[in-house]
Amino acid sequence: MSNFSDKYKIDWNEVKANSFGEFKPLPEGMYCAKITESTLTKSKTSGDDMIKLTFSLLGGKDVKNKKVFENIMLEHSNPDVIKFGLQKLDTILGFVDIPSDEFNHTDELSGKMINVYLNIKSSEKYGDQNNIKFFEKFNEDALSETPSDNSLF
User: Fold this and answer.
1) What is the gyration radius of the CA atoms in the chain, in angstroms?
2) Could you tell me if 48 and 40 are in contact, meaning their C-beta atoms sit under 8 angstroms apart?
3) CATH no., domain 22-148
4) Is 21 helix (H, G, I), strand (E, B) or coil?
5) 114-152, pLDDT tens digit by residue?
6) pLDDT tens across 6-65, in order?
7) In angstroms, rounded to a whole number, what is the distance separating the alpha carbons of residues 36 and 53?
8) 136 close to 81: Cβ distance less than 8 angstroms
9) Cα 15 to Cα 1: distance, rounded to the nearest angstrom
10) Sign of CA dihedral 144, 146, 147, 153
């Protein structure tokens, strides 16, 4: 049996020096995004149906291809959670020009452009992370006004 260290000559000091480090959330503000994944799935904690959305951010080097996520609950023991989720879905559909009464499959959202307003949410478990506060119709002017370009709103 070969030894890992014999087969792979790794300079662990170099690896540690170039590690990813801590995740730092993006500054609060409006960002252009593309919906790159839209999946009907089940919540890991409750097993309830939800739509899981992945948004890839567009813009400068500090932003491009960073991802933010949104879960839209379709089932839940609290009916207000379902109501809020459906209102959020209806808002997104409107901003990407899909009539809500014609929406049939989550794949219809993939590839659609939308603006997302990110804030920073803190938690003991996960630390500081970005959270989508609200959505707007896609406006590519936000590409040049991203907070990562040093122009906070």
Assistant:
1) 19
2) no
3) 2.40.50
4) coil
5) 999 999 999 888 888 999 999 999 988 767 555 544 333
6) 777 777 776 665 555 566 888 999 999 999 999 999 999 999 999 999 999 987 777 876
7) 8
8) no
9) 25
10) positive
